[in-house]
Structure formats: structure tokens, C-alpha cells
Amino acid sequence: MNEQLSLKALHIILVGEHLRSRLHSEQEPPMIRDRRYHLRMYPCCFIGRDVVDWLMKNSDANSRAGAVQCMDILLENGVIHHVVDDHHFKDEMLFYRFRRDDNTVVKNSDLDVIYKGCDIYYRAKNEDSHLIKLRPCHDFVFRNCFTGYELVDWLIQKSEVPDRAHGVVLGRELLDQGIIKHVTDEFHFRDENIFYQFMIDKVVNKKMVDALGIVDNKQPGSPRNFRRRNLPPLNTQRSSPVPFAKERPELDEQFDYERSPDSPVFFPSSGSSSQSPRPVIVREITTGELMDPNGPYVMKNISVKSDAVGFGFVVRGSSPVYVQTVDPKGPGAAAGLKVRMFLKSVNGKDVLHWNHRQVSQEILRGHNIVHLVVMTHFKGVE
């Protein structure tokens, strides 16, 4: 089973892909090109010192040390590497490459979907296809949006998928991996006139130090000031922590959307425990807290019978798995299932220490009905 990606690790990948796209577009002089050192040619690489210069020039960092800090986060998380893996990132005449450019990215089906989604985003943007644009709806205007129907059309037109069914599958995979999201997190991906956004837009208009959560207050004549936070590295051989500041939740605009008459199906996800575009869990809850007899969580039995479309809810998380989304018109809501309920058992099997992929498979084994034991905060009990 592939190691699941955290929301922060996904964010770092998106920052890296945005930097990679920008560096490849630089042609005067080219930032990424084949370079020779002694008698050996190193294809498709960049120089550490040049990238630091470039980040400073483009105001992505306030100091050279801040720029090095940014690039080292990308290196620790397997986005870039030294061409012979001998160095951390340094502000020196050393060659580095994006792992996507030399095909050394760790093989992972989740990463394949993430990178494919990034490629689709930049291709649609660069071609000026008008797929991603301002979308008015009632009294609101949503930036950088597209509809599910238009994305499927675009995928077929660009030969990314052979037909609409495959386009919907790809759209669902992109949403599961956190690459796209419904504008109000109410729907999974549908081939309909429903609005979605690419999550990479969250990093496109930010300085790199801000996107990576680095406080780089270096001003001329003043000492460096960095605030470092720890994040487990992604796909890296080193065990040292990676500095990364906690994300601040962002408030979406209110959205009054005409709901589709169909209930969303239960979608088994291949994503991670925390990589939903907008996690509904404010803080991490442990299984110990859930099962503490003196704690605030109580047990509740719920049986959900699927309709012609599905069960009408989405799960996320790992040890414990929780309910991320419930269609208000679906069978899950009718049975009393609510967002932020934690799953203790499914069809009589204890799932407290399972991940959501395992839980998804177990739910689907129940065919038309699934028996759940959930843990819910006592304030949420009717």
C-alpha cells in the first residue's frame, strides 16, 4: 500500500510544481538546461546560486538564507535533488534537478494523479483555453473556476481521456487527491454544470516564503529571523524534520447554489487521511480520546441503505476515519449520519485503526446496506 500524502506534503508538491513551471519558462537566460561539469553532461538542471538570485529578484524571498530555506524544503520532500545526491541545497555553484525532470520521483499512483492534475492546470492556463476563468453565480463571482462538464469536454478534446466516463473517473481522482475542489465542498466531481477550482491557485499568487510558511524578516542591516516548524519529510531518504508553518484556515465566500437532484454516491478514495481540500476536523483526534469513558464522545448505531446512486457520504482520515461530507438529500443524511462523526466499526468489524481506503472497501462489501457504529461528540447527539 502506498504511503498516504498529508495536506502539507501536497501543498509542498504544488509549490514545487509552480516553481518548476516558472523556471522552465525562463529563457533569457534559461534557468533549466543541460550543463557540463568536467567531462560529464548533466541534463535539465539548474544552479543553486542562480535560483537563489532568481528568487530574490522575483521577491519570492527577502534574503538569500530565506531562499535557501525554501529550496531545502523542496529537497527534503523529494521535489528536487542534487544531481548526484551529495548535498543539501546550497547557495553555491552546484547542480540540482527537479525529480520530475529526470524521472526519479518515487513511483506512487497518488503522485501520478497529482502531477497529472498539475500538468492539466498549466496546460489549460498556457493555452488560454478559457476553461479556467471568473464564474458569476447569483450574487457571487468565483475566481479561476471551471465546471465539471467543461473539464470533461476539455479532457476529451485534448485526448487526455477516451470518453466522458473516463473523464469523470479522472475528475474524481483529482478531487480525491486534493488537486481540485468543489467551490463549497458540497459535491464530489460530476459531469454537470457545477463549479470547481484548482487548489494550485492557492500558491500561484504567493511569495514562495509565504507559500511555505517561512517567516523571513531579513531586511538590510538587520539579523535573520526565521520561524521553523516541523513536518515529516515526504519521499526523502533523510530523517531530519522539514520546517513548515501550520496552514491558516481560509474562509470561503458563501455560496447559494442550485443543488443537483441526484445524491452523490459514496466514493472510495485513494487519497490521504488529511488531504481533503478542506478538512472538517479542526484538530487531530486520537482513538484514545474517542474511547475514553470520561471523554465527550458517545457511541451511536447507524444503518445506511443505499439508493439507486449510492450511500451519499464521503469518508477521510486514518486511525480514526471520519465522515468528511454528507449529501443532505442522500440516504446517509436520512439515516442520521453527520459530518465529523468517527467510524468505530463497519459491518461488525472494528475499524478504529484502519485508513479510509480500507474502510471504503469494507463499506462496499455490504452491497446495499452498511451497518456503522460511530463516535460523535455529545453536543452533536440529538
UniProtKB/TrEMBL annotation:
A GO CC term assigned to this protein in UniProt: plasma membrane
Superkingdom of the organism of origin: Eukaryota
One Pfam family from the record: PDZ
Annotated PDZ domain residues: 301-378
InterPro entries: DEP_dom, mTOR-Rac_regulators, PDZ, PDZ_sf, WH-like_DNA-bd_sf, WH_DNA-bd_sf
Region: Disordered, residue numbers: 219-246
Protein name stated in the entry: DEP domain-containing protein
Biological source species: Pocillopora damicornis
Phylogenetic classification of the source organism: Eukaryota, Metazoa, Cnidaria, Anthozoa, Hexacorallia
